[in-house]
Amino acid sequence: MEVGMTVLETEALTRRYGSHLVLDGLNLEVPAGRVHALLGPNGSGKTTTVRMLATLLRPTSGSARILGHDTVREAAHVKRNIGFVGQYHAVDPRLTGTQNLTMVARLNGYSARGARRHADDLLERFDLTDAAARQVHTYSGGMRRRLDIVAGMVVRPAVLFLDEPTTGLDPHSRNEIYRYVRSFVEEGTTVVLTTQYLDEAERLADTVTILDAGRVVATGTPDAIARTVGSGLDVVVLDPHRRGDVAAIVERFGGRPVDSPARDENAPLRLTFGFDGEPATLLPILRALDAEGIAVQDIGRRRATLDDAFLALTGRPTEGIPA
């Protein structure tokens, strides 16, 4: 499949549960050979979106197409070209790794011999051969998640949906998942993932869509979205009770407050601002803070991140928030 060709597109995709509007008119295009991340706080609609795209949920209105085929009217064709890995383990914990993958391969039309050979090849490729004969309930969390993802790749899909693939994993296991995802993309698979980790989106995704309350608030590359809030300014003050005073002073010099996560009320306070002023502006800010008796522990400019943009666009952090 030619890189850059549109493989997934939606038009005014909408989903309601009764009177509750979960997704409101999503328009999306994802080209071949890319990783596209869906980000958003709790209730933003990202998991609902993935479930509709994977034919697991019917839209209330609007449409979605994968490889030009409608996900409702041509669901059987779409299913033959996609893989789906949900938030929770889908493999059977009572079966071994080999048995799980062999079963999935058999369900997808492989002969008994071909299914076993394919399962063995996948287990070797994804460093699970040593655990192949063990029941899955004996696997670590990272190993089970890797097996989940491999099961979604038994039949090489054109589009792979990953719904929060690394939630709860340790850093080493997360890095292993990243390596596998990139290898899939290099071989031609398009990946759509939801994640609560913004650093994961920055590291993996070619393009990102941020949803809030069911609506798109930004879409583009991680860098382009980060640039929408300008540069960043961090101010760390010793007295956590002077938040309002610090914000008022920095705003006078063009700072745009970005909500910071709650912290220990007795710990130094770090405030983050969107800030496009020149570096020379820092000295007048320091003098103004000092004139108000506010002790500054640290102050510094930095490039805005996807995290800054997410906070500015949704008013909420995403890390630790379930889908």
UniProtKB/TrEMBL annotation:
Statement: the UniProt record of this protein carries the keyword Transferase: no
Protein name (database record): ABC transporter ATP-binding protein
Every ABC transporter domain range: 8-238
SMART domains referenced in this protein's UniProt entry, alphabetically: AAA
Keyword terms: Antibiotic resistance, ATP-binding, Nucleotide-binding, Transport
Species, as recorded: Rhodococcus aetherivorans
Ubl conjugation in keyword set: no
Membrane topology: Peripheral membrane protein
InterPro entries to which the protein is assigned, alphabetical: AAA+_ATPase (IPR003593), ABC_transporter-like_ATP-bd (IPR003439), ABC_transporter-like_CS (IPR017871), ABC_transporter_ATP-binding (IPR050763), P-loop_NTPase (IPR027417)
Major location (coarse): membrane
Any GO molecular function: ATP binding
Pfam family, one: ABC_tran
Cellular compartments annotated: Cell membrane
